[in-house]
Design goal:
This protein has 30 helices and 6 strands. With about 600 residues, the protein is mostly helical.
């Protein structure tokens, strides 16, 4: 935090001016400190000018800019105007302007203030560099940040606050090795150092590293705070580690952090991401008056991705009755719920309400939801027209959504049109090649399948392998198709065969059309049997007691045959199986799935 501006010695606002006695410096400062809006500040500014204080007064400018920076919604243009008219800005004023821009949605203007500061003959201090590094982090400019840090070292300002800011910069830019190396070199780490590195790993797809660092933090007897726990809950959600999540929940209660609304929202998100939607609802209701619109939005989105679309829409109506204003993210959840329930017309009604009633301008995420809504409902022609009529240019995700819908509906013509767009927007994406290849394979156009696969080889495009995570006890195990790296692989494969035998007695036959390759049916059946989720389920059946829920996290969409098999296993073995795939959750129980075979 930048300290409050130091008072000036003279009674007047500016030593060169003679303001009226009725508007003294103390009176002006008191008014500035109690001001709560830009109009109030402008009135005080006007009174000071009428009292004879010149526009270029450094003292008045300093306090005005600080007052602007203290407002919940500062007006940057007003601060820039005042700053531009100050004859000799102090280092405090420069730092306040750097902070204002660094914390704004558009932090670029913060960076040129350093050379202006130096050309004014001023020396940066310990408050200058952290905010400059914060601006670099927002702009994802690690190289520029390193230059700023080098300058801070040369100036003798290499404090833990500067190092923490550099640590945040590396984390924000995804430079994990640099972040961890710097963290190890910080001589006197504080709680912010630990929180920054843990949060950096948690939010950038490195949950295991985040949890490992927390264990080290605990061993060093550094007490966590709410920010630490929110990062850890995020890491558990990424891993789908429900057992660990529940332990953290208990730990939060012991620390007295459970009443923190940010922690409560993180818990709702965590339980939703691990498929424990009942636990998420329980936390939501226990929050009582501490619920915010983030709480409502998190649960709405969580219900939607867990396949409880109708419940998500009911919760949205309850949110409206409670007087909470939905955000653009809330509507992403609402449209997602409509998409995965096949509620096409309802989805368009909400889309129109978002624009007309709530004055939320649709963003690309909302457009993508509408394309997905139409595509899943089989209305690919309407989806294609919707894309062409969009007021903003469709990105690769939107065209990829259409390509996926065309692969499901076997519409080669529109699929090839979507592919052509993707080749221009994001060439070399392995998922696009796989979708087009699957589209051709569904039509038994094996020559085109071979052409696409050959193109992938020539261009060095590698298909993302299917992976499935399963939590057993205190460990999370990862499986890939045909995986034999597990120390108990022989026993796992024996269990796979045992499961296959029991399912055959129930009348199961492999849906070999799910294997989109020109090979014999027997080979197709073998390929299906060793998909990563089947290996993970077999291992879970071996290692958990009868009746215990099995929870899986898969990085790709579940194939049709594995979906059928998992439904059967849930009935034959009397197990609830929760699978989180790339697009949603599937809750299997008693031979049925929460998605009602619509996914």
């Amino acid at each position: 935090m930048i300290p409050r501006p130091p008072p000036s010695d003279p009674e007047d606002l500016d030593a060169s001016s003679s303001p009226r006695p009725s508007f003294s410096r103390r009176r002006c400062l008191a008014l500035l400190q109690s001001s709560t809006s830009i109009p109030n500040l402008k009135q005080i500014h006007a009174r000071a000018l009428r009292a004879g204080v010149p526009v270029s007064s450094p003292d008045l400018g300093k306090h005005l800019i600080f007052a602007i920076a203290s407002l919940p919604s500062p007006l940057l243009s007003y601060a820039d105007t005042i700053f531009g008219r100050i004859s000799r800005p102090s280092i405090f004023t420069f730092n306040t302007m750097i902070r204002l821009h660094a914390e704004s949605p558009s932090p670029s203007p913060a960076l040129p203030l350093l050379p202006r500061l130096l050309s004014a003959g001023l020396s940066p201090d310990s408050h200058t560099y952290p905010f400059l590094l914060k601006a670099c982090a927002k702009l994802l400019l690690p190289r520029h940040g390193e230059l700023v840090h080098a300058r801070s070292v040369r100036d003798g300002h290499n404090s833990v606050f500067v190092l923490n800011s550099l640590l945040h910069l590396y984390s924000a830019c995804g430079q994990f090795h640099s972040a961890h190396k710097l963290f190890e070199e910080i001589p006197h780490r504080n709680l912010i150092s630990w929180n920054t590195i843990i949060n950096g790993f948690a939010l950038n797809g490195r949950p295991n590293e985040a949890l490992t660092l927390f264990r080290e933090m605990s061993h060093r007897r550094v007490a966590p705070d709410g920010f630490t726990m929110v990062s850890l809950l995020s890491a558990c959600g990424e891993l789908g580690a429900l057992v660990l999540a529940r332990r953290l929940h208990v730990y939060l209660s012991k620390l007295g952090l459970y009443q923190n609304s940010h922690v409560g929202n993180a818990l709702i998100d965590l339980y939703a991401k691990t498929g424990a939607i009942i636990d998420a609802e329980k936390v939501f209701h226990e929050m009582g008056s501490r619920k915010t619109r983030v709480s409502w939005t998190t649960l709405i989105v969580g219900m939607a991705v867990n396949g409880f679309g109708e419940e998500a829409l009911k919760l949205f109506k309850a949110m409206e009755i409670a007087g909470e204003t939905p955000t653009e993210i809330t509507f992403v959840g609402v449209l997602y719920a409509c998409s995965h329930c096949g509620l096409v017309e309802e989805g368009f009604e909400y889309f129109e309400r978002m624009k007309e009633e709530f004055k939320i301008e649709p963003k690309i995420e909302h457009m993508g939801c509408m394309v997905d809504l139409l595509g899943r409902a089989g209305q690919v022609d309407r989806a294609y027209k919707f894309i062409l009529d969009m007021p903003i240019e469709a990105n690769a995700v939107v065209w990829r959504t259409l390509l996926g819908a065309c692969a499901m509906q076997r519409r080669v013509d529109l699929g090839e049109a979507a592919w052509a767009r993707l080749e221009r927007l994001e060439p070399g994406h392995s998922g696009d090649y796989v979708l087009l290849s699957n589209l051709y394979a569904g039509q038994r156009r094996w020559a085109d399948v071979g052409r696409i696969r050959g193109s992938m080889l020539r261009k060095g495009v590698k298909k993302t392998p299917g992976k499935t995570l399963v939590e057993i006890g205190n460990s999370v195990w990862e499986f890939v198709m045909g995986d034999r790296s597990h120390p108990e692989s022989e026993e796992i494969y024996a269990m796979v065969e045992e499961v296959a035998g029991r399912l055959r007695k129930e009348g199961y036959t492999a849906g070999t059309t799910a294997v989109l390759a020109d090979i014999e049916d027997e080979e197709k059946e073998t390929a299906l049997r060793y998909h990563s989720e089947r290996l993970a389920i077999a291992y879970a059946l071996m290692k958990t007691a009868p009746g215990v829920t099995i929870r899986l996290v898969k990085n790709l969409r579940v194939c049709e045959d594995c979906h059928t098999v998992t439904k059967l296993i849930s009935r034959v073995y009397a197990r609830e199986i929760v699978v989180r795939d790339r697009s949603r959750f599937h809750h299997f129980s008693g031979g049925r799935c929460s998605c009602r075979d619509y996914w």
